[in-house]
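Kindly inspect this one:
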Amino acid sequence: MTRLQALDPKEATGRSKELFDGIQAKLGMVPNMMKTMGNSSVVLEGYLNLSELLGKGSLGGKLGELLALTVAEANACNYCLSAHSFIGEKLVGIDTNTLQSAREAINADPKIAAALQFAKSLINKNGRVTAEDVETVKAAGYSDGAVGEIVAHVALNVFTNYFNNTANTDIDFPVVEVATV
């Protein structure tokens, strides 16, 4: 049972209504996570703005989705696992084996694997990664700016994981459950 109620877009007013209208126009729906975030328009707008900006970054949509899965598995967020598995497969075109492997920070491409492992290190070490962790991801071919973007992707996904785990958001995607707890 949800612990924070999703706001009905038809009953929303003010800035939340404006944001919902934009989401509806772009996605054809307003996902439950965003409906729930809409109880505070600043929370929803902050999420949307950072998500949009990171989508314009150097890492690309594929790596963004894979990072989201690595972080969601580490934080045991079924909502985010479900959403990013669906988005990764249906909208970004990532095969299911690659999506599944990303949950454990594994990828056949050594550069992508390095980014996923770095993300997992960020989570496991509460952001207190070592100089060696940073050098390893940079040696895989990531610039200082790209490393910063990986950190930002992790932060965004930690936010959504914590939000959805707190809210116990109703999953409105095909359900994927965490393998490790």
